[in-house]
């Protein structure tokens, strides 16, 4: 089953994709690395930051890997480069 | 100005406006507190010999607010005497030497607010989704990476 989620890009990842956000259709059940690979298939330049980003799903951080997520229509996903606040 | 005793305040502000220490300090003042501890993070003019022309901040705003409130929950668990907590963080272009972040925490005695402020800035740097870009002469720029952040590459 596929659903629609919003993806937000920040910092370096926004520069690589040329986007601040987009809406994509993805499987509702997948791992974070599969979700990442979907984003890279749409924006190949994102692969440059593979080793330094995590994702945020519904505003909770998740590492890229075998972490399973259940996505729902309207969920927020974000690509999170290394933080530099403060 | 000081307000009467009320519920503990958890204050967060992400703004493009210039930050004010007085505003943060006033927002955590309370009659039962003998201490207000303030941290100001300011922007430096150089990095590894390169002159910084300006700094630009961006944030995942709703998540930055929720992560800050998680930090506040931790602070109140570890330092139960803490009264009010306030973090103001600037977004957009921040001129060199101006404040990018101001943290204010009040408590009856100074030990707790001093320790809580240290914990607050250290944890903010590790967990709050805000990013800083340094822009150098000749329009070169660099997205900074806090060493406190767990997914910063150690290269």
Characterization of this structure:
The complex is a heterodimer of chains A (86) and B (155). Chain A is an alpha+beta fold and 86 residues long. Chain A contains 2 helices and 7 strands. Chain A is 21% helix and 38% strand. Chain A has a 5-stranded mixed β-sheet. The model of chain A has no long low-confidence stretch (mean pLDDT 97). Chain B contains 3 helices and 9 strands. Chain B has helices at 21-28, 61-78, 110-127, and strands at 10-15, 35-42, 46-47, 50-59, 85-90, 92-94, 99-107, 130-136, 141-143. In chain B, the strands form 2 sheets. In chain B, strands 3, 4, 6, 8 and 9 form a 5-stranded antiparallel β-sheet that branches. A 4-stranded mixed β-sheet of chain B has the order 1-5-7-2, with helices on both faces. In chain B, helix 2 packs antiparallel against helix 3 (110-127). At the A-B interface, loops of A face strand 4, helix 2, helix 3 and strand 8 of B.
Task: Please count the helical segments of chain B.
Answer: 3
Shape of chain B: elongated
- Name the poorly predicted regions of chain B: none
The radius of gyration over CA of chain A amounts to 12 Å
Order of H and E elements of chain B: EHEEEHEEEHEE
Subunit structure (chain A): Heterotetramer; composed of 2 small (MOCS2A) and 2 large (MOCS2B) subunits.
Protein name (chain A): Molybdopterin synthase sulfur carrier subunit
InterPro entries (chain A): Beta-grasp_dom_sf, MOCS2A, MOCS2A_euk, Mopterin_synth/thiamin_S_b, ThiS/MoaD-like
Keywords (chain A): Cytoplasm, Molybdenum cofactor biosynthesis, Nucleotide-binding, Phosphoprotein
Topology diagram in text:
The complex is a heterodimer of chains A (86) and B (155).
Chain A: E1 2-9, H1 11-17, E2 21-27, E3 29-31, H2 32-42, E4 54-57, E5 60-62, E6 68-70, E7 76-80
Parallel strand pairs in A: 1-7
Antiparallel strand pairs in A: 1-2, 3-6, 4-5, 4-7
Chain B: E1 10-15, H1 21-28, E2 35-42, E3 46-47, E4 50-59, H2 61-78, E5 85-90, E6 92-94, E7 99-107, H3 110-127, E8 130-136, E9 141-143
Parallel strand pairs in B: 1-5
Antiparallel strand pairs in B: 2-7, 3-4, 4-6, 4-8, 5-7, 8-9
């Amino acid at each position: 089953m596929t659903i629609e989620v919003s993806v937000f890009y920040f910092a370096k990842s926004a520069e690589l994709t040329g986007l601040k956000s987009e809406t994509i259709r993805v499987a509702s059940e997948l791992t974070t690395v599969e979700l990442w690979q979907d984003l890279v298939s749409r924006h190949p330049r994102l692969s440059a930051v593979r080793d330094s980003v995590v994702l945020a799903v519904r505003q909770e951080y998740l590492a890229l890997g075998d972490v399973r997520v259940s996505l729902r229509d309207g969920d927020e996903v974000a690509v999170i480069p290394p933080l530099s606040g403060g | 100005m000081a307000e009467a005793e009320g519920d503990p305040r958890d204050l967060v502000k992400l703004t493009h406006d210039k930050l004010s220490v007085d505003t943060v300090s006033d927002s955590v003042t309370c009659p039962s507190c003998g201490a207000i501890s303030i941290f100001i993070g300011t922007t430096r003019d150089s990095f590894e010999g390169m002159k910084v022309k300006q700094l630009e901040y961006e944030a995942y705003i709703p998540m930055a607010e929720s992560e800050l409130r998680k930090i506040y929950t931790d602070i109140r668990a570890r330092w139960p005497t803490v009264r009010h907590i306030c973090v103001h963080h600037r977004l957009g272009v921040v001129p060199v030497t101006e404040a990018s972040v101001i943290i204010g925490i009040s408590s009856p005695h100074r030990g707790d607010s001093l320790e809580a402020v240290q914990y607050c800035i250290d944890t903010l740097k590790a967990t709050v989704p805000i990013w800083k870009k340094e822009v150098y002469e000749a329009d070169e720029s660099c997205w900074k990476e806090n060493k406190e952040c767990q997914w910063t590459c150690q290269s």
